[in-house]
Write a structure and sequence with these properties.
With 319 residues, the chain is an alpha/beta fold. It is built from 14 helices and nine strands. It has a five-stranded parallel sheet. The chain has a four-stranded parallel sheet with strand order 2-1-3-4, sandwiched between helices. Strand 1, helix 2 and strand 2 form a beta-alpha-beta unit.
């Protein structure tokens, strides 16, 4: 670990990528490479966070993300506490502020929070002396997912500048899409958003924040020249609320199939944040093809989260 420096990394929290500079994103991605080397060793543990306590505070279920953070913290020798709202004092009426104050009094150094309410991690950050990592809040943000996506693409293609990335699916409700937009555009990628009109929402919303992003309702057209396709999970309740006529119609026009991959570049990459609805937003043959980086995303998630924990605990310290 002596070869990694956190000097120049001044973020005390990871709430979204809108307040990360391109240079800071690069630093995280470079640190992730070193963390992958640690995970490839026979003994996958270093003493970097020994004596530190990381609390995984999940108010939403997410087995994949929680386990990823837990493995990351343990690989850095941190003490890990997994907190869930079910069965806790929250069910008895304890407020989020009360919970944070209790964890602080118990000596927590970092809080990883996942919450259904947008802005909850920002609230915790304002009331906690340690560091806070947003593991997903409402429709707002999921910065660690975006960082692992950036790393996975960069690892495979060597960079992100000028790549054409098509994000397809339920964009209107996707925190993954929003965080990826911040990260991809800052790193110089060209992004096209593609979805049915009811799942894309007003074009003014996207273009007011990301003016260079292209919008499309036609996936076959959007995929021309694509380097990367990122499919988003389609929640089946969208059909129940009238945003989709049927899942079959979505599959017909927006599913990622092998035939559609042929419209993109020859070596196009396919990503998905999971969990997937196979046969709806993405076909099994695509998942099992050479184009799929979905398993690599899961593996890289641990390394990215290790990198963030390492950098937060060392932020602002001299090299």
């Amino acid at each position: 670990m002596s070869t990694i420096s956190a000097a120049g990394f001044h973020n005390r929290h990871v709430l979204d990528l809108d307040d990360f500079s391109r240079e800071e994103i690069e630093e995280v991605l470079e640190t992730t490479e070193s963390m992958k080397e640690i995970l490839a060793r026979e003994i996958k543990q270093v003493p970097t966070l020994r004596g530190k306590t990381v609390v995984n505070m999940f108010f939403e279920e997410s087995t994949r993300t929680r386990i990823s953070f837990e493995l990351a913290a343990r690989a850095l020798s941190a003490n890990v506490i997994n907190f869930t709202a079910k069965g806790s004092s929250v069910e008895k009426g304890e407020s989020l502020l009360d919970t944070v104050r209790t964890l602080q009094a118990l000596g927590a150094d970092m809080i990883v929070i996942r919450h259904s309410q947008a802005g909850a991690p920002h609230f915790v950050a304002r009331n906690f002396k340690g560091s806070v990592i947003n593991a997903g809040d409402g429709r707002h943000a999921h910065p660690t997912q975006a960082l692992l996506d950036l790393f996975t693409i960069r690892e495979k293609l060597g960079g992100l500048t000028k790549l054409k990335v098509v994000i397809v699916g339920d964009l209107l409700h996707s925190r993954v899409a929003r965080s990826n937009l911040w990260g991809l555009t800052k790193m110089g990628a060209k992004v096209t958003l593609c979805a049915p009109p009811t799942l894309l929402g007003p074009s003014q919303f996207w273009q007011a924040t990301w003016p260079n992003v292209e919008l499309s309702y036609n996936l076959d057209t959007a995929l021309k020249g694509a380097d990367v396709i990122m499919a988003l999970r389609l929640q089946k309740e969208r059909q129940l609320t009238g945003l989709l006529p049927s899942l079959r119609e979505y599959q017909t026009f927006f599913a990622i199939t092998m035939e559609r991959l042929a419209l993109a570049k020859k070596d196009v990459l396919v990503l998905h944040p999971g969990p997937m609805n196979e046969g709806v937003e993405i076909m099994p043959e695509v998942i099992n093809s050479k184009h799929s980086l979905i398993e690599a995303q899961v593996t890289n998630g641990v390394a990215v989260r290790m990198a963030l924990l390492y950098r937060l605990v060392n932020a602002g310290q001299p090299a």
